[in-house]
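Justification of computing resources. Each target in the renewal requires a structure prediction run like the one illustrated here; the chain below, 174 residues long, is used simply to show the kind of job we budget for.
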Amino acid sequence: MKIGVVSDSHDHGAPLAAAVARARDWGAQAILHCGDIIGPNSLRSALAVGLPLHVVHGNNLGDMLSMQRMAQGSKGALTYYGGDASFALAGRRLFMTHYPHLARGMACTGDFDAVFCGHSHVALVENVEGVRGLTPLVNPGTVAGIGAEATMVLGDLETLSFQIISLDSSALIP
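Resulting structure tokens:
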């Protein structure tokens, strides 16, 4: 299963939707958003692309109640986990949080096939040595290009391979 991974959209729906469309065109079947969405309305155009979204909230919480309501009314298109998530996709055990230090610790446990985070606005893909070998740790950077280059990650859960993608400058926030 191919996935798109984004983070730190900070209430900017257009670059988020553009990244989701790019992932869809690549063949992704789901999107992971590693937090700092802010308001749920910024997800509407991304949901319209037609891929299921898996979301945690991050440190810029926004309106969590509205996010929960949107997820409940989405008929499975939006899964909102709250602060972090432990879930399975395509037979892979995944963990997602906003915070890199928590993600690194979870990668070290060996309990997950891959771990995802955001927060730093700096894209990173590395294998972390843990108690059961190497675990991919993936930070897609900031999809909105806030304080850093706009980036996302495209990944393949079958091979556990992940690639940082630089997004078109037209998707950047001025």
